[in-house]
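We read letters as residues; the fold follows as tokens. A sample entry reads:
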Amino acid sequence: MLATEYGHRAVQVDLADAAATRACLDALGAIDVVIHAAAVTAATGIAEVTHETWRDTMAINVESAFVACQWVATRGTPCDIVFVTGLDRTQSLPLPPHFAATQGALGALAMSAAHELGPKGVRINVVALGVLSSGLSEGLSAARRKDYETFSALRRVGTPDEAARVIAWLALDNTFIQGKVISVNGGI
């Protein structure tokens, strides 16, 4: 949707493979926006998370974002980076622990990289989404979804379009917000 609306090209890459992620970015050439909206998770408790699951979740959700930051840093040209997460680090939510850890890591990465890369014209921010009507949110149980709607100030879930508008604004129009986590969660 965003690619078509704004005249950009969407590409597919195995984000668990750092070399493939770098090669994809290299093939794109000069870019001025990176939107990292990738995440995997599985509903499981801390005792059930295997080392392989932890490693794969970290590779896709965090390491690929780090690789993108590193790639942008080596280019030395202005760029806007937006990480899309499902947790704003101020909420205590019943999330799978390996997923929650990656979401917190992205906020910390954005804050740190923003200081280093800001003087080079690189803006890095995070959009922390609440429950949406599609995507990973579809995996929520009916009871969890109802809880969210009950405690949300807007008493509803968000739409992908509402999320996309905030992400697009940060990526294309923002000039002064840097290293921040912007909550787009309906007031939870």
Notes: The first helix runs from residue 2 to 6. The chain has one domain: 2-184. Residues 87 and 93 are 8 Å apart (CA to CA). The beta strands are 33-36, 79-85, 122-129, 181-184.
